[in-house]
Write a structure and sequence with these properties.
This protein is mostly helical. The chain contains two helices and three strands, in the order αβββα. The longest helix has about 60 residues. It is rod-shaped and about 95 Å long.
Length: about 140
């Protein structure tokens, strides 16, 4: 091979490497964007499901409709959340609702507690219209 052919091959190789690097960066950016979109969609679905679960539990009596006078909050200690039925962790804020009479304590993640509080108020405010109450 002569020098001109070698130079042309090196230039072509360099251009191809540069193009491949640009495509790899673009693919990496698209993957990151898709992860964000999937995470956002999963969060919206999770919130929607949490609302339905807590609404059903309020209606069938598995969650109290009355808010106790004292509600404590603190880090989770591995209790089962009465709202979403997942285990709490030390990195999560968990609300503790004391039971009435001999009932055990009820534990709710802070997010589940907020949903419960909103739905509880709607349920108490409109007991005859429970089937019509819609929370988005």
């Amino acid at each position: 091979m002569d020098n001109q052919a070698i130079t042309l091959a090196l230039e072509t190789s360099t251009a191809l490497c540069r193009d491949a690097h640009a495509v790899a960066l673009q693919a990496s950016e698209l993957v990151a964007l898709n992860r964000v979109r999937l995470r956002e969609q999963a969060e919206r679905t999770s919130v929607r499901n949490r609302r339905w679960i807590i609404r059903e539990k309020l209606w069938d009596g598995r969650l109290p409709c009355d808010r106790p006078a004292v509600v404590r909050g603190g880090p989770g200690r591995g209790e089962m959340c009465a709202g979403c039925e997942t285990i709490t962790s030390a990195s999560q804020l968990v609300m503790e609702l004391p039971g009435v009479d001999d009932e055990p304590l009820t534990y709710l993640h802070a997010d589940c507690f907020q949903v419960w509080e909103t739905l509880r108020r709607l349920t108490v405010a409109h007991p005859e219209d429970r089937a019509l109450v819609r929370v988005r």
